[in-house]
Amino acid sequence: MIRKFAPLLLPLAVASILAAPVTAFEIDAMSDAERDIFRAEIRNYLLENPEVLMEAIAVLEERQEMGQAATDEALVTANYAALVGDGHSWIGGNPDGDITVIEFLDYRCGFCKRAFPEVEALMAGDGNIRKIIKEFPILGDQSVLASRFAIATKLAVGDEAYKAMHDALMVHRGNISEPALERIATDLGLDTGAIISAMSLPRVDEIINENRQLAQAMQITGTPTFVIGGQMLRGFLPLEGLQAVVADERG
Questions:
Q1: For the domain 80-250, what is the CATH code?
Q2: Which string of DSSP letters, residue by residue, matches 77-128?
């Protein structure tokens, strides 16, 4: 009987096993011999029709992505006040823009560096976006040092100097050390002494810790991570993708 109806049962069984709990039949009700036959038929069917397995996996992945998107949306909603109003993050672009783009980044992150010109192009081509930067150093001591220097620049010299330092660090390709950071500040015409002094302020550590706590609350573990409107995007996205998300949020 199993062999006779195998061509009809197997696609349903495989899809059910991979994409949802099994409810159409109870394999435990089979005898040992019937289970052996059934398993052999499944194996043979998949070997002959691998596209069935790929289709089932695609359905499962789509459901997982939808679930993750719903979870991320809930996390954004729950933490939105901290995302946009922490009182310490740099805010640029149009402060009254109808869309807010928030980026968690690390100056040692290769994908953050790849994303930098894409985000800059997005901002340059759309005058109705507010941009917020979250310093989130997660790639070691050099990352922490770079973020401390950038934050100290904002505290000591102001927002315009911070943006210049941020941009310089995003295109910097060498190791990050205090002498290297001092050279960058000098090249930018900034008050290097004031920045160095500000690096020892407790507020610098507090800002980094607050950003880490926010990232933990939002289940952010990598960079870059973007929050655009109500959506959270984990990883690099080219300009066209960023523009599509912005358009979707405006939809």
A1: 3.40.30.10
A2: HHTHHHHH--SSSEEEE-TT-SEEEEEEE-TT-HHHHHHHHHHHHHHHH-TT
